[in-house]
Amino acid sequence: MVQNSINFIENHSTAAELHVQTETIDYREPPPPYSVFPNNDSSIVSQPTIHQTIIVQTPLQDKPTFYNCNNCRERVLTKVEKVNTRKTHMLAGFICGLTCWCMLCCLGALPYAIPALKKSKHYCPNCNNFLGDYVKI
Ligand SMILES: [Zn+2]
Questions:
Q1: What is the C-alpha separation between 61 and 133, in angstroms, rounded?
Q2: β partners of residue 67
Q3: 55-91: per-residue pLDDT in tens?
Q4: 134 strand-pairing partners
Q5: Ligand 1 mean position, distance from CA 60 (Å)
Q6: pLDDT at residue number 29
Q7: What is the CA radius of gyration of the chain?
Q8: Nearest CA to 84 among 104, 105, 109?
Q9: Out of 5, 73, 78, 85, which could bridge 122 as a Cys pair, Cβ 3.0 to 4.6 Å?
Q10: 3-state secondary structure of 19
Q11: How far is the CA of 50 from the centre of ligand 1 (A)?
């Protein structure tokens, strides 16, 4: 008799627990099916293609150099003009001051005769646009 009542309580308690569990189950809508391709075509936006031309300039030298002119957009062989700089004048004065005691101050004119001691100014031969300087010292 006692054993039957225990079995009855156990059966009813498990039924009550099952009842509670069934009440807490929350039904949700299933997620939409996965698709590799998007459904709507409005999400595809065509990007404008941008074409950029990158021009690599060769560095200027103390002689005529192939260079891309910004003004006439041509690749030209530059026209070079040699110009005396402040360093050229200072070197000439230094040599003149150093050699004037022995009457050789005419050696002071030597820096003006050496092209490597001058600044090279590059110009475009087509449009005469200034392209840049090159200074060795
Ligand atoms: Zn030019």
A1: 9
A2: 76
A3: 777 889 889 999 999 999 999 999 999 999 999 999 9
A4: 120
A5: 15
A6: 79
A7: 45
A8: 109
A9: 78
A10: helix
A11: 26
CA of 137 to the centre of ligand 1 (A): 27
Tokens of 110: 């030597």
123 CA → ligand 1 middle, Å: 8
Which residue is associated with the tokens 């392209």?
Answer: 131
The C-alpha atoms of residue 117 and residue 103 are separated, in whole angstroms, by 24
The answer to whether the CB of 122 falls within 8 A of the CB of 78 is yes
C-alpha of residue 71 to centroid of ligand 1, in Å: 5
7-11: list long-range contacts, CB under 8 Å, 24+ apart.
none
Measured in residues, the chain has a length of 137
Give every CB contact of residue 63 below 8 A, 6+ residues apart in sequence. 80, 120
Domain range annotation of the chain:
51-135
- Distance from the CA of 131 to the center of ligand 1, in angstroms? 9
Give residue 61 CA to ligand 1 midpoint distance, Å: 18
Question: Ligand 1: distance of its center to the CA of 77 in Å?
Answer: 10
